[in-house]
Amino acid sequence: MAGGAADGEGLARRGGSARRPGDQAEAGSPGPLSAADAPAEGAALPTWMRLYFYGMHGITLDVLVSSARRFARSPDLRMLGFSSPYRCVLHSLTHFALEKVYLQQRGCPSAFVFNFLLYPSAHVGLQTLAGQALLLSLGSGPGGAAAPGALDLALQYVLALYHCQVFLKRFLRLRYRRQQQQQQQQQPQQPSAPPALPGARALAAAGGRRRRPRGPRGAGGAPRQGLPDLLRFLFFGMHGFLDEIFFTFFFNVLGQGDGAASGHTSLWSFFMYGSCSFVVEKFYFHLHCSRGWSTWKRVPIYVLVIYAWELTWGLGLRTCGACSWDYSHYPLNFMGLITLMYLPGWIFLSVYQDLLSKVLWRVQYVPTN
Question: Residue 36 burial (CB < 10 Å; 0-12/13-18/19+)?
């Protein structure tokens, strides 16, 4: 399920009020980008959007870690990974709390102490408490909530370093344009009107009209703003994990009556969903922005692309023994790789895809100077 290119203009400009001398960052160390010193290209992401991203990112880490562990014990080219909606909610809350901790970096006199001791300690402690609370809430009992081993703690420390040094450092540079800001940006500022030239009134009287300026466009009618192509692909790939984890979780709960069941997905789904949604989004920009097609006129095109993508990927993965799905036991299936039973779900995701594209159109990544 995952373009546009982010503008690099105005990176040296700072939004908001003037900074006090005591708030000035140390030379050569830009530090985290907070709302107070954000570029004047948009506001920080809304809270709901950050929680959404954090939950999706947490599920992605769950899938990667569980898939690697499972493959190490028993090599399987399907590369299955596991998570659940419970963990998604916990990831949203813990990531949000860790964001607040990360933003205190400027107040620490030593960047090394903060990055390699204070933040990892907060990360490991909070993740451990969240994991124990989840086990207890699912009825594992005190005996089931065993203390994490040394290997688990080491893994959490590595994830803390990644979270601090890679993820948050870049994620907090995402800016969000409101609809009004976006429309103003699309319409270039016009210079003050010069004195009327001879014949101008005659031209107006003759019915001549100036063409309305169009916003910047990319290939296929796609707007030249929003996240870069690579970040959009990553977003849609992670969202594919989220979709499959939620779908398989509720399928397992309804089918087995087990409230503690987890959902599963495959690492191949990241590339499959990411590439498919990236192509579907191109259709959205072309059919909606250039041709003005309505949603329900576009949806059949989306569904055909999805089914063709699922069939093609399924055939390729099956030849390698890596296909993680089989619909042979469903009616209205073709080669066990696609089935019309999932048509309502694909229609829903197609409509939801348009909503995601509209949101990502307003999100912009502002790189460091």
Answer: middle
